[in-house]
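Q: What would this complex look like in 3D?
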Amino acid sequence: MFSLPASLLALAAVSHASPILVRDTNDTNPFVFTNYNGLNFTQMNTTLSNVTIFATGGTIAGSSGSALATTGYTAGAVGILTLIDAVPEILNVSNVAGVQVSNVGSEDVTSTLLLSMSKQINTFVCEDLTMAGAVVTHGTDVLEETAFFLDATVNCGKPVVVVGAMRPSTAISADGPYNLLEAVTVAASPLSRDRGSMVVMNDRIVSSYYVTKTNANTMDTFKAPEMGNLGEMISDTPYFFYPPVKPTGKRAYSIMNITSIPRVDILFAYEDMSNDTLYNAVASGAKGIVIAGAGAGGVSTSFNYAMEDVINNHGIPIVQSTRAMSGEVPISDVSSDTALHIASGYLNPMKSRILLGLLLAHNKNMTEIADAFLGSTDD
Ligand code: ASP
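A: Here is my prediction, written as structure tokens for the whole assembly.
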């Protein structure tokens, strides 16, 4: 017989009694509602949608002794409840529950953490009919990798909005609070469904499939240089330029039964590059390699021979991407008759590494991996 999930029944009971449960300020317990997954809400207004914020750390949770410091601060110092409390306007938009996944600078985010967070989002958000979407707070440095991973592995139409900040929470004009409010607004909006994972910062909504950090310091850093933005935040409303659309070549992967992601190294190509860099990666245990090649994936003649040796004699897939800020590596620019070369298409080296790791985790063979990357140029 069809039965409603426990959280829906609980919500129905709550809404019958009163549409809004808010915190009693004399009470030390900051939560008013706990759902069937154990997620704690600081408010339950049944006329609003529910969003879960998964906090990982980064500058958005950063703290400094100086209100002028935008460098040299401690990333990942402030907890998720403090972040939510700093933006009470969030509670006009959505009921929120916070999950403290970690509290680290994004440089310390690992594939183990990514797997665990993606599983939690699939379970706590995708499978829960009462949940509208997820927000992930994250350091900005490797944010695009996490956003791409979640885009590929959270398998439902609900939005996953990844957000960070370029100024620590203690700076004058910190961008974190407004970015967080905008991220929750996008995650709560029905307009955001079926758009995959998105990065929301600096009033822009950008596809996680294409977004990259373009500037090491300034707030207007997250862009998809050729593909543009999906939309903008205008005051408190998301404005999408197009109806939902799937990026060309995007594929979905289930990670629910995956326990680890094989090691994939990125090698940056440069003038007079030594072949040793490639053999050192293989000797150190890389199961896949991405080359941030010059221009459309280019490497020297000698390095190309070394790559063919590694592909043919070590069975290690090598994806040729580009060290240029944008543009495509087409298969025609890297293919040969003597080895199975793989071109990254429009995926930059960081996103190529995430995709190659996912494919290896699913035990895909060299031909299947090459096919999956071909999909990034033509679906
Ligand atoms: N180093 C920080 C991080 O990625 C920078 C930031 O969050 O903006 O965690």
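A: To summarize the key features: The chain has two domains: 6-240, 264-374. The first helix runs from residue 6 to 17.
Q: Very helpful, thank you.
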